[in-house]
Design brief:
Largest interface: A-B, 44 and 44 residues
Number of helices of chain A: 1
Strand content of chain B: 15-25%
Helix content of chain A: under 10%
Strand order of the largest sheet of chain A: 6-7-8-10-9
Oligomer: heterodimer
Largest sheet of chain A: 5 strands, mixed, barrel
Radius of gyration of chain B: 20 Å
Order of helices and strands of chain A: EEHEEEEEEEE
Number of helices of chain B: 16
Helix content of chain B: 25-40%
Number of strands of chain A: 10
Shape of chain B: globular
Largest sheet of chain B: 9 strands, mixed
Order of helices and strands of chain B: EHEHHEHEHHHHEEEHEEEHHEHHHHHEE
Number of strands of chain B: 13
Structural class of chain A: mainly beta
Strand content of chain A: 25-35%
């Protein structure tokens, strides 16, 4: 039997504890939400409006949670108000280097639900303050392609 | 709705493996076995695995477990093969959902004796990776990529609660002070040191306004509850406790999608209490309110402030405990700050909450947590806290009913289960 040239990293001998790496490359489709992410690429924000009950969602969805009706896309304004916020000093592993960062929930006029986003360039966030959408120049093809700053 | 034809269900016993930051000396099977043996031991050997008709097993995350079908391995390890078994998963409410699934199995007549067994092994990864796994239980297209951090979501809910109702950081700190003080007398708790409001407010900020001491810790641990029909309860247990009612509610996965409408009312509330409140928004847990409405209806409760003497609430964050005082009707929406300021949820207060120390002090090994809450409620109803804790400080006097509140996501699922001394 040929010898293994790389052994596992043993973190404790008793009880015997090893590090095991497990990596995955998923092929994740944005599926019916793809137009939202396409629009981010054109520096635009899209929401969903229910064709049946006219409820308007700031975070898009293909079907209405209130009545089950199908929704249409509509363009959101780039100006909104801060509904809530926080500053994170810790995070999940992929985002640790970005700490501290701010999260916010944005409300828009005549839209029934909110949009969760990163906040930037705000010294002291205040609920109700006007905020404006900004778009990353280099796209990441994720919801992070938009963030909000003081208007 | 469950029909009246459903059979009464009793809790006979339970057991727990003390929650810890890590239990490297035991894998998940042995942790559950330890809790299972404690549950059987509490019945003095009257109940054996041969008397158990099947089980429900809960653990939240395949990612933490790094083992699929771990429930099947538990069933095998505790000696319940080849009987029926199913795994239950529902985020942070996994343990509470497991308890209710076992209640349903007995109530329906399918099983006479059912073991509800839960565990989580969160020490398999570092805390930042654990945050990442937990955040995968938020919408991975729209929420997770913003930071992979549930504490951030709860922090935004807390900030909005502060804005709507004037809640303060000091009030959240008082919740933590209360729970750690109770835990000093609970040998099953991890954090058994009393702290001051000042110490809580000096602890490291995790996501404003949530700090290290107002946030629970990821843990390893297991808990087991044994449920049975009336006939089997009488046969195997001298002092069983009846499941008076269960309720469950849900809400949108993305908290950004929550409506701003009317408050669903509890029996002791009126519409005029909430004339100007837009509900639930992100300040309140509609799923908790709906779970309360259902559970109270089944248990015949018209005023929970008078009729339930002990609560184990899901204080993954001190702010969440305050939100839950309001959801379950211990005070009106907007009054949780005054509720804690007046000391009402303290152990000697009018409505004791988390006499065990809750998740803040005991830890939150997700699949076990909701079962641990029900076990503490069970011991409260039996008046058996002193026997299990070696100290009667945490025993609330004259308990006739105790309730556990298990909570997932940003309030995506909530279960409320009410136990009653027969």
């Amino acid at each position: 039997m040929p010898e293994k040239t790389e052994g596992p990293w043993v973190t404790s001998f008793d009880p015997l504890t090893l590090q095991r790496r497990y990596t995955i490359d998923y092929n994740i489709s944005y599926a019916e939400d793809s137009p939202f992410f396409h629009a981010l690429g054109r520096d635009r924000l899209l929401g969903s409006e229910c064709k049946h009950c006219n409820y308007r969602y700031a975070t898009p969805r293909a079907c209405c949670t209130l009545c089950g009706g199908k929704t249409d896309w509509f363009e959101l304004p780039l100006l909104g108000r801060l509904h809530s916020w926080t500053r994170c000093y810790f995070s999940g592993e992929p985002y640790l280097r970005e700490c501290p960062f701010m999260l916010g929930l944005i409300e828009f006029e005549r839209v029934d639900t909110l949009f969760m986003t990163r906040l930037a360039e705000i010294e002291q966030p205040e609920i109700g303050m006007p905020v404006r959408a900004h778009f990353r120049r280099k796209k990441t093809w994720s919801v992070n392609d938009v963030y909000f700053a003081a208007a | 709705m469950v029909s009246k034809a459903m059979r009464p269900v009793y809790m006979l016993s339970g057991g727990i493996t003390k929650f810890a930051k890590a239990h490297p000396e035991m894998d998940f099977r042995l942790m559950v076995k330890e809790a299972f043996d404690a549950a059987l031991g509490d019945l003095g050997g009257q109940l054996t695995p041969a008397d158990i008709d099947g089980s429900v097993i809960s653990y939240f995350s395949d990612h933490f477990a790094c083992q699929l079908k771990a429930g099947a391995m538990v069933q095998d390890f505790v000696g319940l093969c080849p009987k029926p078994n199913v795994r239950i998963e529902g985020g942070g409410a996994t343990g509470g959902l497991c308890f209710q699934a076992a209640v349903q199995a007995v109530a329906s007549g399918r099983l006479d004796v059912c073991a509800a067994m839960g565990f989580e092994t969160m020490s398999t990864v570092e805390t930042w990776k654990g945050n990442d796994f937990i955040a995968l239980a938020s919408d991975t297209k729209f929420d997770y990529p913003l930071g992979g951090f549930y504490t951030g979501y709860y922090a935004m809910m807390a900030v909005r609660h502060m804005h709507e109702f004037g809640t303060t950081e000091e009030q959240m700190a008082r919740v933590a002070v209360k729970n750690y003080a109770n835990a000093a007398h609970n040998p099953f708790a991890q954090h058994r040191r009393e702290v001051s409001v000042e110490e809580v407010l000096r602890s490291e900020m995790i996501a404003y306004p949530l700090r290290r001491l107002t946030t629970c810790v990821m843990s390893d641990g297991a808990a087991v509850c044994i449920l049975a029909s009336e006939e089997k309860a009488r046969r195997f247990c001298d002092n069983p406790v009846r499941v008076a009612g269960i309720g469950c509610g849900s809400d949108t996965m993305r908290m950004a999608d929550r409506p701003h409408g009317k408050v669903p009312l509890l029996p002791h509330e009126s519409e005029s209490d909430y004339r100007h409140l837009r509900y639930p928004g992100v300040h309140s847990f509609r799923a908790g309110r709906m779970a309360a409405i259902e559970a109270y209806k089944r248990a015949g409760i018209t005023d929970p402030r008078e009729e339930i003497q002990v609560w184990e609430l899901h204080d993954a964050y001190a702010s969440a405990e305050m939100q839950q005082y309001e959801d379950v009707g211990l005070c009106r929406y907007g009054e949780s700050g005054r509720f804690i300021d007046e000391g009402r949820p303290t152990i000697r207060g009018r409505n004791p909450v988390n006499p065990s120390g809750g998740l803040l002090a005991c830890g939150h090994p997700v699949g076990a947590t909701g079962l641990m809450q029900m076990l503490f409620c069970f011991w409260q109803c039996q008046g058996a806290i002193a026997r299990h804790f070696g100290d009667d400080f945490c025993q609330v006097p004259n308990v006739t009913r105790a309730a556990g509140y298990s909570h997932a996501g940003t309030g995506t699922y909530v279960t409320i289960s009410i136990l009653e001394k027969p």
